[in-house]
């Protein structure tokens, strides 16, 4: 199915105190996206940066999302922390609470929750943890979208439970033949034209070329670029220009979009 509208999100506010890390380009990046995944203090972010990120998002008509991670500032949340399903989800609830209060301070609400890094991948592979996560979201934030991979336990369980869910396509990550993302860090991964062409093909044809085989189908409602990816601004500029030149509008996902994702056949 050719997409006429697509969301673009970016992980934002990923500094801490005087350490800027991935937040150096946030002000410029915020002008190029439709949804922001704002770090909530465990892998990155602090109260002042959360507040600033929300004000920047609202100033650019960008939808707000919580970006909770493992409690791992030193490893930027990209190291697996051994924890029970309940511990993982309680940490997510804690972080949602923090960012949700800052949103309320500015008269806004959260559009979505997108786990970060190793926590995202841990939930994707763990049926029990994803079940606890989705059931908890249905209690504390029943209308708040969950952002996740299509090829994940998180997506499958959210779809089964009828919770609004948005599948992501990663512009700056490779895929394997199962539809899962893989972290390669090859310099060519960050070529703006290559990334834009790959995204456009995914939007027009619903296909992506994995690192270990032939083309696979990929379903998604949102495109993600990481703020700490080398050349993230240039990547997003190229992606936006390519999509709009091909008649594809950039906008946050709607409730109808999320419901359609719920009803899509799980991978």
Automatic annotation (TrEMBL):
Pfam families: LamB_YcsF
Origin superkingdom: Bacteria
Protein name: Lactam utilization protein LamB
One GO-annotated biological process of the protein: carbohydrate metabolic process
Coiled coil: none
Organism: Metarhizobium album
């Amino acid at each position: 199915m050719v997409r006429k509208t697509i969301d673009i999100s970016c992980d934002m506010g990923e500094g801490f105190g005087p350490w800027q890390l991935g937040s150096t380009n946030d002000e410029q990046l915020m002008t190029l996206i439709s949804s922001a995944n704002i770090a909530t203090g465990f892998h990155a972010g602090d109260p002042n940066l959360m507040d600033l990120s929300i004000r920047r998002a609202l100033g650019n008509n960008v939808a707000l999302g919580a970006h909770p991670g493992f409690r791992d500032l030193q490893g930027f949340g990209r190291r697996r922390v051994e924890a029970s399903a309940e511990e993982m989800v309680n940490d997510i609830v804690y972080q949602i609470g923090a960012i949700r209060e800052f949103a309320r301070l500015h008269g806004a609400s959260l559009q979505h929750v997108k786990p970060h890094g190793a926590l995202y991948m841990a939930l994707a592979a763990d049926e029990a943890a994803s079940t606890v996560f989705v059931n908890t979201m249905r209690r504390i934030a029943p209308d708040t979208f969950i952002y996740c991979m299509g090829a994940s336990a998180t997506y499958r369980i959210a779809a089964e439970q009828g919770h609004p869910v948005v599948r992501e396509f990663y512009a700056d990550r490779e895929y394997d033949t199962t539809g899962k993302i893989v972290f390669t860090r090859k310099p060519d991964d960050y070529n703006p034209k290559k990334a834009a062409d790959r995204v456009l093909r995914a939007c027009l044809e619903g296909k992506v070329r994995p690192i270990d085989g032939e083309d696979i189908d990929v379903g998604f409602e949102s495109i993600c670029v990481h703020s700490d990816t080398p050349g993230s601004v240039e990547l997003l500029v190229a992606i936006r220009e390519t999509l709009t030149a091909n008649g594809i509008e950039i906008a946050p996902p709607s409730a109808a979009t999320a419901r359609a994702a719920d009803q899509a056949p799980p991978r």
